[in-house]
Amino acid sequence: MDKNKTETYYILFEKMINSMTSGVKFDRREFVEILDEICNLFHISKGVTEFYTSLSKEKAGQGEILIDRDNGRGDKVVVRRRLVTNTMAVIIGTLYMAEEDEPLTNEEFLKVDLILRALLSFVSRNRLQVAVEMLGFYDDSGYPNVRSYSRFLEQLNEKKSLPGHTAVHFNLRHFSLINSDVGKDAGDVVMRNYFNLIKEVIGEDGIICRMGGDNFVAIFENRYTEQIMEILRGVPVAYDAAGDKRVIVSASAGFFIIPEEFAFRNEGDVINKIMMSSLIARRDDADSIVFYSDKMLVMKDQAMRIRRIFPKALEDKEFRVFYQPKVDVLSGRIVGAEALCRWFREGKIVPPMEFIPVLEQHMDICQLDFYMLDCVCKDINRWLAEGRNVVRVSVNLSRKHLVDADLLEHIMEIVEKNQVPHRYIEIELTETTTDVEFKDLKRVVKGLQEQGISTSVDDFGIGYSSLNLIREIPWNVLKIDRCFLPVEDDCETDVTNLMFKHVVSMAQAMGLECIVEGVETTRQIEILRENHCNIAQGFYFDKPLPVEEFEKRMEEACYAVPEGE
Ligand code: C2E
Ligand code: MG
Ligand code: MG
Prior knowledge:
Blueprint: H1 3-21, H2 28-41, E1 46-52, H3 55-59, E2 64-70, E3 76-84, E4 90-97, H4 106-137, H5 146-158, E5 165-172, H6 175-182, H7 184-202, E6 207-212, E7 215-221, H8 225-233, E8 235-238, E9 246-249, E10 251-257, H9 268-281, E11 289-291, H10 294-315, E12 319-328, E13 334-345, E14 348-350, H11 352-360, H12 364-385, E15 392-396, H13 407-417, E16 425-429, H14 435-450, E17 454-460, H15 467-472, E18 477-480, H16 495-509, E19 513-517, H17 522-530, E20 535-537, E21 545-546, H18 547-556
Parallel strand pairs: 10-11, 13-15, 15-16, 16-17, 17-18, 18-19, 19-20
Antiparallel strand pairs: 1-2, 1-4, 3-4, 5-7, 5-10, 6-7, 8-9, 12-13, 12-20, 12-21, 13-14
Helix pairs in contact: 1-2, 1-4, 6-7, 12-13
């Protein structure tokens, strides 16, 4: 081998080793160019690398064949090397020459062989890296996982470009329903297509990963936020090749717009924020998209504190019943009362809105509700013993109770234990959002009715109240929320006015008692009378009262009402 050729060989060999070990992203094009030059140097006409993931795959001939070069000149094998990796994958490299070309000298053969061996070990290392990457950074279904997400966050942070990006955690809504509607396999396609839809929008500058189940996280440049929100609010997603079969997919999501001054210590700084806001977005009473704000941290701390001190507070009897009278608007007589909870904590009264929603996130609320029912029953029992003119008292029960298969027994146990005649108890429940809850609600209301205990639909008019709710469930009372109550009735055709009128007459035609909550003005009392809805509860008569004051009202028995026309 002449001196020049040997020199060129060493230069090319060094270039090849450099490109294989440079550490920066591997440049495949450059690498192939080097190999090409080497082949030219030794008149190699063709080079083939075969890759098999296992020995049995090799036997069966099921592998990948990478043809690195073929100039079409010849097929005479000059070197063939087979390498078995420690994961039992097989890599085979074969080099060919043209029949008519001069064969390699011994020295040339050794040089070519060295190149081939180096190439094979490089391919094997690369394949191993891909396998490790797939194992560590992707889940079983091939979605990038949370480790991919963390790595992407670290990379952005490294480049100091986290600000300018928006992170999001989202949970697909009702995905189990979609799965049961279209089947598991089509459900997988739906999920993949929805994922791809988002991936397409955010492109290479962002990432979307699956956290598990139907939970995902993504991060992208701020300019895509609107578009992503639109997709999360709900879009049709196809699950067949033609795109004819489609379902609407939406998600509840927590966003975090990363601020300029954001201090990143680790990925948890981002993930915790989007998970926290996403959790809020999942609640029935919240918007399905929630943006993170530092206020949430304070609220979370407060909520945790409430949960922590609740059991002791209950034991120490810090919760008390206040009674708000329900009044007949024609006679001014008290015809009932609603029991509302007040928390006496460190000399202050904590209003229900500050603790009920927190307790409602867990089953803690059930303990409180049963405690309230027990207090009410004790009061009624005492009033009866004192010979008072007792009225029916309604107690609020959270929807959380509906999963309790023995709810009815629990209620009856408390009522019986206090020997309260059933007609004095009414249970208030709010409407439900899911079919399962609806069935439970129906069962509970029916059961209570059989026991002679009244039931009422609370807050009718807000949220998801459907007419089905009052058609299919045998309620006694409809509590119409104040949002249905016209404030000004100047315009007879005003929508609120019309709805109020018709809701009242429909409910009455169905044999339901109607009561309006939140009545505050004389004019509202007149509107109630005009619509023949005769029972009101509201500040016009009284706020919720401590028991002693309510007892005084029971004695007085009558409020002044506006003169009739
Ligand atoms: P709710 O059951 O709809 O109770 C009526 C709420 O309206 C009460 O608020 C009452 O004080 C208020 N209200 C009554 N009249 C008027 C009025 O004229 N104007 C205005 N602006 N408001 C009026 P409160 O006591 O703050 O209770 C809020 C909610 O907390 C209740 O709404 C109920 O959902 C829940 N809650 C209260 N106590 C309990 C309880 O023991 N258990 C459960 N599960 N929930 C409870
Ligand atoms: Mg109520
Ligand atoms: Mg209400």
